[in-house]
Amino acid sequence: MKRPYDMARPVPPEALADLATQVAAPRRFGGTSAPDQVAAIRALAWRAWRTEATTEAAHLESVDLMRMGRDAVAAQPDGISIYGPGLDEAVAAGQITREAMLPGRPGYDIMVARYAPMLEATPAYVWTSTPGNSRAEALASGRDWLRLNLAATGLGLSLHPVSQALQEFPAMAEHYAEAQAMLGQGGTVQMLGRLGYGPAVPPTPRWPAATRIRPA
Ligand SMILES: Cc1cc2nc3c(=O)[nH]c(=O)nc-3n(C[C@H](O)[C@H](O)[C@H](O)COP(=O)(O)O)c2cc1C
């Protein structure tokens, strides 16, 4: 969930132990709520986030998938939905547009102002890794992540991927290497996410599943 989490409510070790059972060997689960380790991952996640946001080609990949404002989200319920209190007003005022999402423009500043405190308010992280980095391992990690997300939700926790440091483009290489060394557990990190107690939020707007499945 893309919200600040409650920093007065630590994630108990039992919750991390519970989540760990969702990932079967040879894939590996990692998780921490230890303040020093959380601080190190948070700093890396923020450096990587800023690197993506200031690398125009990488940033525009996300911008191109943004649905800006309630009407656009309703018309095309996929991609990155930008709507809700504060955001709909900024869209209506012309502060959030595709062009305004570049550094130095108002939409970019709104994005930074939302993400900085959000990523800061993170009391725990979880991650997964695989021995190799095959397509099959990546798909299995995707299934693990969905199970982790459901299990976290079942525990009253919120989970939010922070993928920037795991991306493979030249400007990210230094952060990628740091993430692999810090979290790879001898293999390749597949997912990294913030974990904590967040506010209740509505489901992400999505197309009905039946409209995405082609009859045989
Ligand atoms: C593989 C994957 C990577 C993601 N990486 C990020 C990310 O780096 N930053 C972010 O804000 N959201 C990221 N998202 C989170 C999605 O935006 C999130 O899933 C979306 O809000 C939908 O929520 P839901 O999956 O709980 O319905 C990622 C999602 C997936 C599936």
Explain this structure.
This protein starts with 12 loop residues before the first helix and ends in a 20-residue tail after the last strand. Strand 2 (66-68), helix 4 and strand 3 (80-82) form a beta-alpha-beta unit. It has 216 residues and is an alpha+beta fold. It has 8 helices and 6 strands, in the order H-E-H-H-E-H-E-H-H-E-H-E-H-E. It is 43% helix and 14% strand. Helix 2 (35-53) runs antiparallel to helix 8. The strands form 2 sheets. A 4-stranded antiparallel β-sheet has the order 1-4-6-5, sandwiched between helices. The chain is globular and about 50 Å long. It has a domain at 1-54 and 117-200: NADH Oxidase. Bound molecules: flavin mononucleotide. Flavin mononucleotide binds next to loops.
Features:
216 residues; alpha+beta; 8 helices; binds flavin mononucleotide
TL;DR of this structure?
With 216 residues, the protein is of the alpha+beta class. It contains 8 helices and 6 strands, in the order αβααβαβααβαβαβ.
The CATH superfamily of the domain at 1-54 and 117-200 is known as NADH Oxidase
β content, as a range?
A: 5-15%
Unreliable stretches (pLDDT < 50, length at least 5) are none
N- to C-terminal distance: 35 Å
Strand segment tally: 6
Q: In which order are the strands of the major sheet placed?
A: 1-4-6-5
The Rg value, from CA coordinates, equals 18 Å
Question: What's the level 1 CATH class of the domain at 1-54 and 117-200?
Answer: Alpha Beta
Task: Name the bound molecules.
Answer: flavin mononucleotide
Secondary-structure content class: alpha+beta
